[in-house]
Design brief:
Blueprint: E1 4-6, E2 9-11, E3 17-22, E4 32-38, E5 45-50, E6 56-58, E7 66-71, E8 76-81, E9 90-97, E10 110-111, E11 115-119
Parallel strand pairs: 2-11
Antiparallel strand pairs: 1-3, 3-8, 4-5, 4-9, 5-6, 7-8, 9-10, 9-11
Length: 120
């Protein structure tokens, strides 16, 4: 089943966006969920992950600005992004996996198509 992201857009630096990812069945099944991002010419990098028990981890670059959360009843994953910076510009993708959490891309089996975030 496909993951579907939404909520991206073009905003000025300092503003906020809330990204959503519809993940049918994955959250309720206890999958580890993550938000990753990829900017042109750069490798995909982990932004925030939340494991099946609700423990969250963040990349140093977004700590204190981004918050990952999930709605267990609706199977929706969120990423609240505050105080956005130009370096946050990227395609943001959500992913699901049966791993133990963390930012290793190989732990995530299922991926969405991504939503573009542009900060100017």
């Amino acid at each position: 089943v496909q993951l579907v992201e939404s909520g991206g857009g073009s905003v000025q630096a300092g503003r906020s966006l809330r990204l959503s990812c519809v993940a049918p069945g994955y959250i309720r099944a206890g999958y580890c969920m993550g938000w990753f991002r990829q900017a042109p010419g750069n490798e995909r990098e982990g932004v925030a992950v939340i494991d099946g028990e609700g423990n969250a981890s963040y990349a140093d670059s977004v700590k204190g600005r981004f918050t990952i959360s999930r709605d267990n009843t609706k199977d929706i994953l969120y990423l609240q992004t505050n105080s956005l910076k130009s370096e946050d510009t990227a395609v943001y993708l959500c992913a699901a996996g049966r791993g133990i959490g963390g930012f290793e891309i190989d732990q995530y089996t299922y991926w969405g198509q991504g939503t573009q975030v542009t900060v100017s």
